Amino acid sequence: QSLLVESGGGLVQSGGSLRLSCTSSERTLDYYFIGWFRQTPGKEREAVSCISNNGDVTKYDDSVKGRFTISRDKSKNTVYLEMNSLRSEDTGVYYCAAGMDLVGTYVTLNEADVAAWGEGTRVTVSS
User: What is the pLDDT of residues 16-33, one digit of tens each?
Assistant: First the structure.
């Protein structure tokens, strides 16, 4: 079983919303930045968003800016990805990823910085 577990995927109509969650039952997510990546049909896996260990710094791919919001609740050991105004091109498998962030404010959209991955949750946006 993966260190990270995603949930919240599903089928939604274009323009709708979903909230994805990423958590771990095995380890605290403190000291880690958490990122969301997605694999859309016909494309390589791409970065969507990232949040720093302390939650103060976030980063988004241009394709989701203004529509997606990443946040974290340390009391619940969970990171969320709120997805609004969903489009058919947002369809894909969304993966949660973690990497070490000892400074507290590190964010990255680079897969090379990722140390652990979840198994993914599928999002389907119907037009």
Answer: 999 999 999 889 999 999
